[in-house]
Design brief:
The chain is mainly α. It is 79% helix and 0% strand. The mean pLDDT is 84. The chain contains twelve helices and no strands.
């Protein structure tokens, strides 16, 4: 299966969009850092640094596109048949794509963290990572918890996109569904807080799980709205990720090629 992973990584590296999007991500972080430095009275630089200058939102869009196309394009171009003829199982093919996306997402997060640290050192040398924020965390702790929370949330979205990509052959439809789910989580989240107050069981819905990155650094306030502890939210995210990937695996194994 490692050969399959190497082939997937080779295809990813050779795509012009991979390089272009990496450069664009660095530029967006740099631009956000410059604006935070110039308008520090309006934009809190401490929050911007701990939230990676908003780069995680851009990573979500990049990874949604990558996750939807990595499966859908195989069906559209008929390359899945060639892999099956080479005696690879469908499980191996799908797992190689998951591993490739994990490596790609880790690369994007590492690139974001390094760029953020460089921007902080250049533009905000006076800010200390040991400074205690209003949440009670130091900046380095807030940065770490936000990164972990957003990464888990990213994979909740990606697992849904990967499942949908196994159901349908259109990468565009899978991309659209992933983006709608991402934006819907922000729009519907406030309404869900009200609904959870009345129907407590609703707290386990997947959209509520996307509040993890907000709760993981501010548990006391967020728990009153989500009715879930941080550990419960982490567990809920992991359960949904496994569920969506599992459903995608079942569909992929039965899919006509």
């Amino acid at each position: 299966m490692m050969l399959l992973v190497k082939q997937e990584m080779f295809k990813l590296i050779k795509k012009k969009s991979t390089v272009v999007l990496s450069i664009l991500l660095v530029i967006l972080i740099a631009a956000a850092a410059v604006l935070s430095n110039k308008y520090s009275d309006l934009i809190n630089p401490h929050e911007m640094i701990t939230q990676l200058f908003g780069a995680t939102s851009w990573i979500v869009f990049i990874m949604i596109a990558a996750a939807s196309t990595i499966i859908a394009m195989e069906s559209q171009h008929g390359t899945l048949k060639n892999l099956l003829y080479r005696r690879y199982s469908r499980g191996q093919i799908l797992a190689s794509k998951w591993i490739t996306l994990v490596l790609y997402s880790l690369y994007l997060y590492l690139l974001t963290i390094v760029t953020t640290l460089i921007a902080k050192l250049v533009l905000f040398p006076e800010i200390s990572f040991t400074k205690t924020l209003s949440s009670g965390q130091t900046m380095i702790e807030a940065l770490a918890t936000y990164t972990i929370g957003s990464y888990i949330g990213l994979w909740l979205i990606l697992s849904l996109v990967l499942m949908l990509a196994c159901f349908i052959n259109s990468s565009g439809a899978a991309i659209s569904a992933g983006i709608v789910f991402y934006f819907a989580s922000s729009v519907i989240s406030g309404l869900l807080f009200i609904a959870v107050e009345k129907w407590n069981w609703l707290k386990w819905n997947p959209i509520s799980m996307l509040n993890l990155q907000n709760q993981i650094g501010n548990e006391e306030m967020m728990q009153q709205m989500t009715h879930l502890t941080t550990n419960q939210m982490i567990l809920g995210n992991l359960v949904y990720i496994v569920l969506f990937l599992g459903l995608g695996y079942i569909v992929f194994k039965r899919k006509n090629v």
